[in-house]
Amino acid sequence: MDTDTRQFTTRFLDSLSSAPGLCMWLVRPLQTLLVTGEPVTLAALAARTGRTEAAIREALATMPDTEYDAAGRIIGFGLTLNPTPHRYETSGRTFYTWCALDTLGFPAVLGHTARVTSACRATGEPVRLTATPNGPTDVEPPTAVVSLITPDQPTSVRSSFCNQVHFFVSADAANDWLADHPDARVLPVTDAYEAERPVIEEIIAADPSPDCC
What we know:
The protein is built from eight helices and eleven strands. It has helices at residues 3-17, 24-34, 42-49, 53-61, 100-110, 157-160, 175-180, 189-205, and strands at residues 67-68, 74-77, 79-80, 86-90, 93-97, 114-119, 126-132, 135-140, 145-149, 167-168, 184-188. Strands 1-2-3-5-4-6-7-8 form an eight-stranded antiparallel sheet.
């Protein structure tokens, strides 16, 4: 990764860290429950984190992008049961993610391997890869890239970031999209994973216990 790209990824991480709606200590426990394939209750999250349901409810109130079913159970936060363009298959189950970057990072957070299929934002052609805890492999086409964006005043994780983080089959395929998003850049899939690693490490290190925060 060259110096200019490193500077861009630093801006990306700074912008992401300033976005509301990302409670780090809750992300991993929530996704660990979601990946079982069933909607998640407050009681299950409380048991998983050792916190009260009231504390979980308070934390979720700061995460407005969280998806719920009609019964009030959680069905999505980054990893979701609702279809999106980003198909994520693991352990015989099919999930979806909010953005291209999610597909690369969740295997490291959750300790599994996933098969990812996503349509190029520009052409509709499929981008396929295997996402492992150590990064992406078997990327097809090998020219595939991921878009990243650095908004100055992000309003939420999903609206400001996820909705703009796409796969493209090549950097050339992203040219028109980039023309409309001057604060964005596309990176090869492996570089995009490297850019995300500090966030992955922060999620993994976050302590969900009541004594933490």
